[in-house]
Amino acid sequence: MIRAGIIGGAGYTAGELMRLLINHPEVEVAWVHSTSNAGVPLADVHEGLIGETDMRFAETFDLNACDVVFMCQGHGFSRKFWEDNELPEDLKVIDLAQDYRDESDGYVYGLPELRRNEVELCRKLANPGCFATAVQLALLPLAQAGLLEGEVHVTGITGSTGAGVKPGATTHFSWRNNNISVYKAFEHQHLKEIKMTLSGLQGGKDPDISFIPVRGDFARGIFVMADITTGMEIGDLTKLYKEFYAGAAFTFVSDRPVDLKQVVNTNKCVISLEKHGDKLLVLCAIDNLLKGASGQAVHNMNLMFGLPERMGLALKPSAF
């Protein structure tokens, strides 16, 4: 049985992570740390856990009492945490923040569809960002085939949970509902890790990506639309994608148009392709809290501990 600890248990990703781990057949949650909620039942903060657990948030943590620790605090916290705390020799780390996505300090960038073998052998893992996951999965086969030669246009729409649990001017319901807006155009922080991965597939050549992130008026999910110019036929492009993802546990290439309801509340990524003249349109959908965060973290944990990839992640989308 894997004993897991969670640092920073109050946010959306931590709540989803707890939901998965509590129901994982090979995991026991040892403790969930939260300074602001110490002593409070988990289900008082993450109300979906009512009836699932009677655990309370811990004020302290014992890194030696677990086999893996999930870092769920905000960006910048993890580096400071490990400056102040020693990593036990046998402890594995899965960091959901962006601190080590540059693969510094021995971390492996944990995109299973591309780095499965490295993930299986690593001790310290940096979980990809939500937008980064969707954009990369939309473009990986093209990068490997050398087809990202010109400008790549990408628009991505994300749900409000992507902004975190703390309310703000652009996240509260009355502003977000029935509304849409662009933010961080061409400058989103996930572009760094996207380009790092795609560059590695293209012999060090950075792709020219114009990325427009959009705030959607829904709670969860990411819908990415990417287009490039190519003379390749749609049949060959579809074959390229299906062969690339043939062994993937959660990423599927569909012959029908993608929509968010196919993936919300699951760890799936669903991709579809359309060809319009010399334009290829790639559509890609994921749940930002699962495939884009906590579900992918559990997938990586399964790989790191030699468990079946889909264990604890057999989640079903809603029919409506």
From TrEMBL:
Record keywords: Amino-acid biosynthesis, Arginine biosynthesis, Cytoplasm, NADP, Oxidoreductase
Domain of life according to the entry: Bacteria
Compartments (UniProt record): Cytoplasm
Pfam families named in the record: Semialdhyde_dh, Semialdhyde_dhC_1
Catalytic function, reaction form: N-acetyl-L-glutamate 5-semialdehyde + phosphate + NADP(+) = N-acetyl-L-glutamyl 5-phosphate + NADPH + H(+)
E.C. number(s) listed in UniProt: 1.2.1.38
GO CC annotations on file: cytoplasm
Entry coiled-coil feature ranges: none
Pathway: Amino-acid biosynthesis; L-arginine biosynthesis; N(2)-acetyl-L-ornithine from L-glutamate: step 3/4
Keyword RNA-binding in annotation: no
Any GO BP annotation: L-arginine biosynthetic process
A single MF term (Gene Ontology): NAD binding
Stated family: Belongs to the NAGSA dehydrogenase family. Type 1 subfamily.
HAMAP family: ArgC_type1
Entry function: Catalyzes the NADPH-dependent reduction of N-acetyl-5-glutamyl phosphate to yield N-acetyl-L-glutamate 5-semialdehyde.
Name of this protein: N-acetyl-gamma-glutamyl-phosphate reductase
Originating organism: Duncaniella freteri
Gene name for this UniProt entry: argC
